[in-house]
Amino acid sequence: MTAGSEEIVVSHLTKHYKTLRAVDDLSFTVHSGRVTGFLGPNGAGKTTTLRMLLGLVAPTAGSATFGGVRYADLEQPIRHVGAVLEASSAHKGRTGLNHLRMICTAAGLPWEAADEALARVGLTPAAKRKFKGYSLGMKQRLGIAAALLGDPRVLILDEPANGLDPEGIRWMRDLLKTLAAEGRTVLVSSHLLGEMQQLADDVVIIAAGRLIRQGPVDEVLGSMAGTAHVRVRTPQVAELTAALSEHRATVTPLPDGALLVTGLDPAAVGHAAFANSVELHELTGERADLEQVFLQLTAGKAGIR
Amino acid sequence: MKLVKAELFKIRSTSTWWVLGLITLALWAATLLTNWAGSSINAGVDPADQGLSPDQAEQIRVANEAVNVASNLYTSGQFFGVLMVMLLAAIVVTNEFFHQTATTTFLVTPRRTSVVLAKLIASTLLGIGFWLVTSLLNLIFVPLILNALDVGPQLGEPAIWRAIGLNGLAYVLWAVLGVGAGVLIRSQVGATIALSTGYVLGYFGASILFFLLTPRIGEWFSKLQVLVPPLASQLMVAGTELPGNPPRWVGAAVLIGYAAVAGGLGTWLMRRRDIA
């Protein structure tokens, strides 16, 4: 395989259930050497899309390929693509090590790969423990170990941060960044947007089964910069509200007593306060973050359909 | 081949197989004792005394022939043994859904037909294992019982070895049936309960039903008994042809038919199904 051939290309992918268009004519591309965040509200069709990518769910129309080849047509697929789909997908009465050995046997990999993968995710001490005794975080780590067994060029993870504690999330972030830096293609779905902002290089945002926006994180955020907010705190709420309203700004009281001002930058808010002799205790410009962009982009296309 | 190894490893690395194995051993012992008792009682019955129809009297007379008593004893444990093998085979499939390992399995091997075939072969091997163990135990203990009944071990009779061999075929076919049933009934608990009650009730229910209805409907109706899977597999291991019963190969053909349908349907369903 050449370096560029591990791109994931999703083309007009569609899945209709009886009354539901779970995924609707979805097209996007995932580039190698970068972490791509796959975002959408719950029920947007993220999991269905990933499962179609991996040949587990049959698409109604369209296709998904890895370097031009469908997953089911890959020779020894787990040597090309590693996937983590559900944290709890192992037999409860089987040990973690045996879970990985089982995969090695089916894939024709040596059993040593299981030991190495366990070590890489820090699970060696729990190798001989049964899966039912694992914490959610350990289950996630075992899932990642399974995905790494074949040393794949592409990694696909469905909500990998679920159930991880802050330290685990940090570990996951570092691991995925390292894997991408090694030139691998990394696709991570999530509804935890703050996490994505720190992790992803690119984002693909979907809602109600359709593509909303695709591009580098900075670009997607930048396109929404005009809607930044200013947060102010003052003992003279009425006076400031009146003064700002003259500048056509929108003022929304926040539960903690501060005000959220939309339509002016921090300098303009400060000047308006100064000109009207209003005392300020706090003045903060808030850049749009992925969370707000996401909520705006997906507003009205909620997950329950 | 590596898929069969993987399936066998899956079975080996969990405890279900030896739990069901122990249950099988216990039930085998109980069955052997029951068959012993049954043979002793039957041996004391003089068919002429009982006011039986000539057909029934003939059946008992033939069943009492040493070779048939022996073949019945040498295949002891079949009734529950094949049930356990079927359950294990079904669990080989339902486990994948119960523990959500189907995802992993099909990620490693997207060619699903190969996966189902590997499961069929692994379950079959498991069935053969169960058959080997029970047959070995029978070969150790049955000669003692036969000596106690004053009939000699009968191991020179080809009919005995044919019965033991066909018994092995029964174990294999029930394993295949189990895999097919596991695909059809994906719920682990559902499959276990449905298969065991279906098997036991099907056997006794069908026996009673045919017993009650045959006099009303006619003698031909009782020939249909062989269509009930557990009755078919019992027919297969009869030592010689029993009068009034269809020939043994019919039992085998019926079971092979069921196994082929279950295996084929299971493969077809597994290929089409979305793994979510």
Overall tally of structural domains of chain B: 1
Structural class of chain A: alpha/beta
Fraction of helical residues of chain A: 25-40%
Q: Terminal Cα separation of chain B, in Å?
A: 27 Å
* Uncertain residue segments of chain B: none
Q: What form of chain A results from the Cα inertia axes?
A: elongated
**SS strand fraction of chain A:** 15-25%
Q: Summarize the amount of helix of chain B as a percent range.
A: over 70%
Largest interface in this structure: A-B, 33 and 27 residues
Which structural class do the helices and strands of chain B define?
mainly alpha
Question: On the 0-100 scale, what is the average pLDDT of chain B?
Answer: 86
* Rg on CA atoms of chain A, Å: 23 Å
Mean pLDDT level of chain A: 87
Order of helices and strands of chain B: HHHHHHHHHHHH
How large a portion of the residues of chain B is in β-strands, by DSSP E? under 5%
Structure, described:
Chain B: This is ABC-2 family transporter protein. Chain B: Keywords: Membrane, Transmembrane, Transmembrane helix. The complex is a heterodimer of chains A (305) and B (276). Chain A is an alpha/beta fold. Chain A contains 10 helices and 13 strands. Chain A folds into 2 domains: 220 residues, Rossmann fold (3-Layer(aba) Sandwich), CATH 3.40.50; 58 residues, Alpha-Beta Plaits, CATH 3.30.70. In chain A, strand 6, helix 5 and strand 7 form a beta-alpha-beta unit. In chain A, helix 2 crosses helix 3. With 276 residues, chain B is mainly α. Chain B has one domain. Chain B has 12 helices and no strands. The mean pLDDT of chain B is 86. Chains A and B meet through helix 1 and helix 2 of A and helix 1 and helix 6 of B.
